[in-house]
Amino acid sequence: MNNFVFDNSTKVAFGKGCVREHLPEFLEGCGERVMLAYGGGSIKKNGIYDEVTQILREAGKTVTEFSGIMPNPTYAKVLEGAELARRENVDLILAVGGGSVMDCSKAVSLAARYDGDAWNDFWRNQGTVDFQPIPVCVIVTASGTGSEVNGEGVITNEQTKEKLGRDYHACNARLALMDPVYTFSLPRRQMVSGGFDSLSHMMEIYFGKPDGPNVSDDLNEALMRGVIRDLRASIADPEDYDARSSLMWESTMAENRIIKLGKSTDFECHMMEHALGAYTNCNHGEGLSVLHPVYYRHIYQDGLTKFCRFATEVWGIPAEGRTKDELALAGIDALAGFIREIGMPTRLSEIGITEENTDLSEVARSCEINRGGYRALTAEEIEQIYRECL
Amino acid sequence: MNNFVFDNSTKVAFGKGCVREHLPEFLEGCGERVMLAYGGGSIKKNGIYDEVTQILREAGKTVTEFSGIMPNPTYAKVLEGAELARRENVDLILAVGGGSVMDCSKAVSLAARYDGDAWNDFWRNQGTVDFQPIPVCVIVTASGTGSEVNGEGVITNEQTKEKLGRDYHACNARLALMDPVYTFSLPRRQMVSGGFDSLSHMMEIYFGKPDGPNVSDDLNEALMRGVIRDLRASIADPEDYDARSSLMWESTMAENRIIKLGKSTDFECHMMEHALGAYTNCNHGEGLSVLHPVYYRHIYQDGLTKFCRFATEVWGIPAEGRTKDELALAGIDALAGFIREIGMPTRLSEIGITEENTDLSEVARSCEINRGGYRALTAEEIEQIYRECL
User: Do A128 and A171 form a contact (C-beta atoms < 8 A)?
Assistant: First the structure.
C-alpha cells in the first residue's frame, strides 16, 4: 500500500427530509448574507427552490441569487459569481444542484476572495491560497460527480479551450445535504449519465497499481458491483428509494477520497473527456461512456492482472477456459454491453462530435497525460483513440 | 437506507515513515506543553519512544509523561491522567500505543476539562459537554480497535464494575499517525486479538437491517474478506508490509463510521464482552472470539437472510444443496473454524473465566442490551450464552 494522507472535513446529512431537518441549524452558525446558486431552473419546477427559499426566509437571511449555471460551467460564469459574491459581501454560498452547480460554486468561493488571475495561478498552475474561501453548503439534486464531498471544481475556460479541475481541500463544502427524493425528478438521461460518471470514477481509481490484494480495490469492486446493480434498479423504477439512495451514496463514496487511498489512480479517460468537453461542450458522462471501452482495449495488456480481476470480480465472468487476454477482453466487453444496456452512447458521432466539426488532432494535443495508470499515452495514441470512437 | 449524518474530523497520515514526516509540522501548530501517554513500556524496547521523544525535543516541547496505561484502562487511570494534564496545563496529548492508550487518552482529554463527575455525567448518562477537550494526536502501535479515527473511549470503572464507551465526536483525535512498521514488533497474540476485534466490529455492523442490497453491507463484506485474508498473511509473515498495512487500514475502515452509515448495527457481542471484561479484566479480542459463534447460533434464525449472505459472500460457501438453516450455520461454523485456525480461544475457561470465579448471573444482569441487532436478548439469554461458552 502506498503512503497516504486522508482528510475530509465535509459533514454529510443524508436521507429523506434532511434539508428541512439540518439546514436551519447549519444556517444559525453562518452570517446573514447567502448566495443561492443554481442552474437552469429545474429546481423551480420540482419544488426544491420553494422549500429552500422558505427555510432561508425563516432563518432571516438576505439572499442573493446566482442562477443559470450551465453544464460544463465556464470560467466566465465563475468570474460572474465571484464578482456578485464580492459585491454582495456574501457569508455563505448555498449551491443547489448537481456537479456543475457544485463545482462552479466551489470555484466561486475561492475566486471571490482572490485578487490575482485565479485561472492561471490556481487551476492551471496548481497554486495554493492562504485564505479561507467563502463557506459553501451544497444541496445535491443530481448525483454522480461526488463533488459534494471534495474540493474539486472542474471548470471550462472557453477562451483557452481548457477544462481543468483539482481536488483542493480548502474548497470542500462545509455541509452536504443529500436527499435521494430530490433526485427523483431528474430526467432519465441525466440520472444514467451521473451513474455512469460514478462507475467511471471507480474504474479510473481501480486501474492503477498495486495489483496484489489491497483495501482500495476490495472496496472499489464492492462499489462497482453496487452501482451497476443500483443503476439497473433505478432505471426500472426511478422512485425506488433504496436503489436511488444507494446509487447516490455510491457516487459519493467514489469521490470522498477513501477509495483513492494507498494506490495510484489513472483518470486518463477523464482527461480525454475533459479535452473533448473543452472543445465540444459534450455531456461528461456520455463522453466517458464512449471513451472507456476503447481506451481499455488499448491499454489492457499493460494491466492484465487487474483487467482479469475486473472481469471476474465485477462482471462475474469465469476465468476457466479463457486465456488471460480473453478474460480481460471479456470484462471490457461486459462493460461495453452494460453501456448499451443502459442506453448510453458508444460513438462520438452519437453525441455530435465528428471529424468534420472537431479537430481531433488539436484536441488530442491539448489533452493532459496522467501518469498514474498502467501506461502514459502519447498525443498520437489519444488521437487514435478519439478516431476509433467516431 | 436509513437516514444518517456523517462527520469525521480526524486527519490520518498512513505509511512507513509517517511519524517523522508528519509529526513535526503538526507540532508547530500546537502549544508548548505536551503530555506523552503510553502503556507498559514496550515502546521503549522497540525504538518508538526514542523516535517520538527526539521529535518532541527538536520541536522544543515541554514533555510530561503519563505512562502505565493498562489494557482495559480504568477510570482511576483516567482521573490520574486528567489530574496530571490539569496540573501541567498541557496543550496536547500525544498518545502512543494501541486501543487502550488511545481510549484512555481521549477520556483524559475530556475529563481534564470537566469539573463534574465525568463517569456519571458523560459515560453512564451519555451527557454532552460544551467545551473542547484537550487536542489529541495518536501514534498507533497496535491496530484493531479503530480508536484512532473516532471519539470512542472504552473505560472500565472498577468500583461500579462497568465497562462503557461511546463515540463522542469532540473526542476524535486531530491527527492519527499510522506506520505499519510500528506494529511489526507486536506479539502474535496481540496482533491476532486486534485483527479479530476488527472482524468483530465488521460483523457487529453487518448483522443488522436492512437485509436487502445496500452500500454498507457491500463494503463490509469486502472488508471482512480482506481482514481474514490479511490476518492469515500477517500470521504467516509478521513483517509482510502489504498484509500488515492492509490489516491496519481495514481495522480503521471498520470504525471510522463509514460502514455504519445507513443501517442499524448490533454490538451486542461487544456489550457481552464489556460486561465480562468489567468483572474479569479479560482480553477484549479473546472475549469476543469465544462469544461470537455461540451468540450467532442463538440469534441466526432472526436474521436468516443476512446469515446466509454471510456464509456465501464472506466464507464462499455454496448455497446449492443446503437449506437456509444449514447455510447460515455453515457460515457460523466457518467463523468458528477461522477462530481456531488463528489460535484464538473458543472457551471462557481458556481465558481464566469459570463458574467458580465469576458470578455469570450477576455479569449477565449488568450487561447492556442493544436494540440494533436482529433480536434484543434478555438477561437470562445472556447468562445462558455465557454458560454455553464455559
Answer: no
Residues of A in contact with B233 (CB under 8 A): 213
- Cβ–Cβ gap B9/A5 under 8 Å: no
CATH for B11-183, among 1.10.10.10, 3.40.50.1970, 3.30.70.2190, 3.40.1190.10?
3.40.50.1970
> B310-350, pLDDT tens digit by residue?
999 999 999 999 999 999 999 999 999 999 999 999 999 99
Residue A347 neighbours by CB distance under 10 Å: 12
Domain locations in chain B as residue ranges: 11-183, 188-389
Strand order in the sheet with A11-14: A62-66, A33-37, A92-97, A136-140, A175-178, A11-14, B4-6
Q: Which residue has the cell 514488533?
A: B185
Hey, is the C-beta of B152 within 8 angstroms of any chain A C-beta? no
B14 with A7: Cβ contact below 8 A: no
DSSP assignment of B267-279 equals: -HHHHHHHHHHHH
Residues 6+ apart with CB under 8 A from B230: A213, B195, B243, B244, B246, B247, B250
- pLDDT band of residue B370 (cuts 50, 70, 90) is confident
Closest approach of chain B CAs to the CA of A187, in angstroms?
A: 23
**Residue B126 backbone zone (phi > 0: left; psi -120 to 50: alpha; other: beta):** left
Q: Does B249 touch chain A (CB under 8 A)?
A: yes
B6, B218, B249: residue with CB nearest A1: B249
Q: Under an 8 A CB cutoff, do A213 and B229 touch?
A: yes
Residue B75 to residue B103: CA distance in whole angstroms? 11
CA–CA dist A196, B158 (Å, integer)? 55
- Show the cell assigned to A147: 463533488
Q: Which residues of B touch A11 (CB under 8 A)?
A: 5-7
Q: Do A262 and B249 touch (CB under 8 A)?
A: yes
User: A116, exposed or middle or buried, with CB in 10 Å at 0-12, 13-18, 19+?
Assistant: exposed
Task: Please report, rounded to a whole number, the percentage of residues in chain B having pLDDT higher than 70.
Answer: 100
Quick check: A215 and B253 CB within 8 A? yes
Q: pLDDT by residue (tens digit) across A92-124?
A: 999 999 999 999 999 999 999 999 999 999 999
Give the whole-angstrom CA distance, residue A15 versus residue B103. 31
**ipTM over 0.90 threshold:** yes
- CB within 8 Å: A242 and B213: yes
Radius of gyration, alpha carbons of chain A = 21
Q: Do A94 and A35 touch, CB atoms closer than 8 A?
A: yes
In a 3-state reduction of DSSP, which class is residue B83?
helix
Domain A188-389 has CATH 1.20.1090.10: yes
- C-alpha to C-alpha distance for A189 and B187, rounded to whole angstroms: 56
pTM: 0.97
In this prediction, residues A205-233 reach a mean pLDDT of: 97
User: What is the reported pLDDT for B371?
Assistant: 84
Instruction: Judge whether residue A370 has pLDDT over 90.
Output: no
* Cα–Cα distance measured from residue A248 to residue A229, given in angstroms and rounded to the nearest whole number: 13
Query: Would you say A164 and A157 are in contact if contact means Cβ atoms under 8 Å apart?
Result: yes
d(CA A180, CA A243): 9
What does the mean pLDDT of chain B come to?
A: 97
